Amino acid sequence: MATQAEDRPTFELEGRTYLAEPTMVEFLAEAGFKTPSAQKRAQSALEKAGYGDVSGLLALSTKDLEEIDGISEVNAKVINTHALKVKLKGKLVINYEGMVKREEDFNYLPTGSSSLDEMLTYSGGQVGWRSKTMVEFFGEPAMGKTQICYTACAMVMAKKDRGGWERGVAYIDTEGAFVLDRFKYLARYWGADMKKMQDKFLYARADNMDEVELALDEITKVAKEKDIGIIVIDSIMDALKSQYPVGMDELKNLQPRQKHLKRVLDKLKNLALLFNMVVFYTNHVRANISRDKSVPAVGAQGGAVMGHASDIRIYLQKTNKAQRQDFKFDNEVAGHVGLKIGRATIVDCGFLPEGKGFYLIGPMGIADPNNYNHILKQATEYKEKGYISLDGMGNALVHLDPNAKRPRTYIEENQAKIYGVKKEEKKTTKKATKKAT
Predict the structure, then answer these.
(1) The CATH classification of domain 111-416, taken from the options 3.30.420.40, 1.20.120.450, 3.50.50.60, 3.40.50.300
(2) What global pTM score does this model have?
(3) CATH architecture of 10-88
């Protein structure tokens, strides 16, 4: 039994006491290697591989450990077994009270649209993107998949008094479509201090699934240090198709492709649970060829492996005329400044009902369609001043003057709803403070 300091958190398992937050040396000492030399070899191998922190080990599978040079199959099992004990604090099976506590550990992130927030309303009344959750977006091009990812990343980095988490971001780009200037503008708009947070922003360009895995391994090593709150893979299918093309003459690639996809998704799930983060990945649509009218005309790619891994599966699509009229949305007028309105549908989720939500795609990323007139006015002013131009797909590109006045966000406009703070109370507090000064 290891010697414990009185102020160190511990847990009991099978009559033994273990450190709940051990250093690497303490972790390996408690793991139960057969010989001291085996422990030293494992420590040396892990240090050479860049694992100086125990949190990185907790996200690895036995197979991942075996692939580290110097770690044998036997020692990989020893490390993985003890990692499971530390990760679960010795509680492989939890009771009702433990389940209630687990529910309290979730964090919730506003989406930027009140309609999407309403769609993502949980049993306890919380709204938005939930931590420890894998979210998949699929839909046709230019329906806002990347913009939703951008906005969520900006919100994760945003200050807490603006509804954000003030945590780090890890973005894996498989399409080469990430635009730093665009993201910097959105981060500023939603309330992130980029000078303060720039060290917590991680980016990786990955062309295939091997490179995605390598990027995840690097992220795992620093996830605790950088306090990563979200991992984005945009898009996961691009990397998969690059490495495993599946045509009529390449069906032999299907089995290894799905195995590789499952391995990556398992890593993402492990990271989400271990570091209390949310995971986003975008996907492509496929046509469903069936005479059964109950089967949707389109679905997501990736098969059952992708479907079972995703906690929330969301289909993004165009709105019809009646839906646009509900928001008094004018396609022709809005199109001149790059505004679009999209519809999100939860098609599969174990803890949320199937539902629909609407969102505005524009210069500010994802916005509230209920604020359409206000945002249209802002976007029109920006275009007249030369701050906005349109790309080939009609999306708004922002070239904002750093000294320009930042518009108010949906979060600021709806403080009472999101924070439970009334604007009148806030004004009164400010006046009282000023008077006292």
Answers:
(1) 3.40.50.300
(2) 0.80
(3) Orthogonal Bundle (1.10)
